[in-house]
Amino acid sequence: MAPRRTGSLLSALAAAGLAALALDACRSFVGGAAAARRGALVARPVGLDYLLRRGPKNADPPLVDISSAKGATVEITFKKRPFGINRYAPGKDGNGAMVMDIKDKSRYPGDPQGQAVVAGVKVGWIV
Description:
The structure is a single chain. The protein is α+β, with helices and mostly antiparallel strands. The chain has four helices and two strands. A two-stranded antiparallel ribbon has the order 1-2. A hairpin with a 6-residue loop joins β1 and β2. The termini are far apart.
């Protein structure tokens, strides 16, 4: 009887080991833990040219207080992205923004990047 218990104990340990390997292989096959190990969640740095064109400028105002904005309101609906607002200054507490730069013209009828110009958006507007 004693040899039979040893054999069943060894087979149980072997089965548990194979189950653990299969479970790990399934998780890495789908891409869950293996993707994080390869560095997929690391932010990619942007180039200097991008920062010079789209980054903050010295002349940008400090955080804009959206609640103090005055003037007429205009409702504009953009149909698709990108809609032509190149740069904006963020508002306080992450609410709203001030338009800092827009595309200067629409290149052709239906140009998605010309939507802001066609709709009449101006630099300095609060969105």
